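So, does this match?
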Amino acid sequence: MEALINRDIIITGLQAWDIEIGSNCKNIALQFAKHNRVLYVNSPLDLISALKDSKNPKVQLRKKVIKRKADDLVKISENLWNLNPRLKSLPVSQLKNKVLFDIINKYNNKKFAKQIKSAADRLGFKDYIIFNDSDMFRSFYLKEILKPACYTYYTRDNLLAVKYWQKQGKRIEPLHMAKSDLVISNSTYLSKQAAKYNEESHFVGQGCDISAFNPENIKKVPADIAEIPYPVIGYIGALKSLRLDLNIIEHIALTRKDWNIVLVGPEDDIFKSSRLHELNNVHFLGPKAEAELPSYLNAFDVAINPQLLNEVTIGNYPRKIDEYLAMGKPTIATSTEAMTYFSDFVSLPKLKTEWINAIEQELKNDNKTLGLARQKFASEHSWENNAKEIYKQIEKILSREYQRNN
């Protein structure tokens, strides 16, 4: 079965509909809404945000909703609605006491579930599916309270590697996964981790909108990269020391001074103060508008993603890899378990010293046939195909439950 048809789906998660950055969950919701009715639920306004960010327009809107001065349920498109719950949740994530956490978290969940049920009833939702995008705390009891036809937990980042989630997350997320009907992931690594708690754990791949990353649509080379001589070894994305290995970039630049390293994206403080700024063959071009990125990528001779190996990155599926490949570019990335998915099309050095040879080989061996193969592989990772993989796993659960009850 390639698609769920005419089902009612409720989505909860960590990212609100009005988030400024790209969101897997929003892209998946848009795909679901092509053939189903979808209620996308924003997380409740928490008391800390209500106090600290009182001037934030989003916080102000949620306060208006709570005071019934604005609608809580807004129609986004024909089959898609967005809900701002009329409640303020109590902060729990940093509580150390397990008993106190459970009491307050259950209280929050009950209030949250009541708001969701009210919206679902108004929309006439029946026999609905719940799709939870890693909301491990606020949605912990939704399966028991709302009793969906299928409860799916979606994991796409190793959240437990982040300090914010660790106090209670190390206990709660495994419990949450274990009681879910289905756990899906965009990473083979995360899927294997989830399988420790739930045998219905499945890798469903990652969606990506690569429509803009087509070399045939590029008409000109941006001025600030046009004069940088061959070969250009480039990276596009946030330059964050938590995720990128400064030592690899420095090693490449110092070992091959005839190569030019081009870094496109905003820098954190560690990058800003790094030795890289002293090297003549390292070029920081700064952040660019999203629409400009394909033109910069098209100017690269080799595209790189030198991830730092840590608990945050080890299970990460970098969408930039699909963008690199969609442009047909020779691509090199740090070897991780999650990155083995790309091993037929991406060079994956394990050691810092292997990067030079990897780049040399990609520069030497690149050709049009390889470029087209990379493009074809990337084109398979559409949001539509990603949704089909998710549907396939949900259908298996629904079919099993149907057989059990009939």
Summary: The longest strand covers residues 8-13. The mean pLDDT is 95.
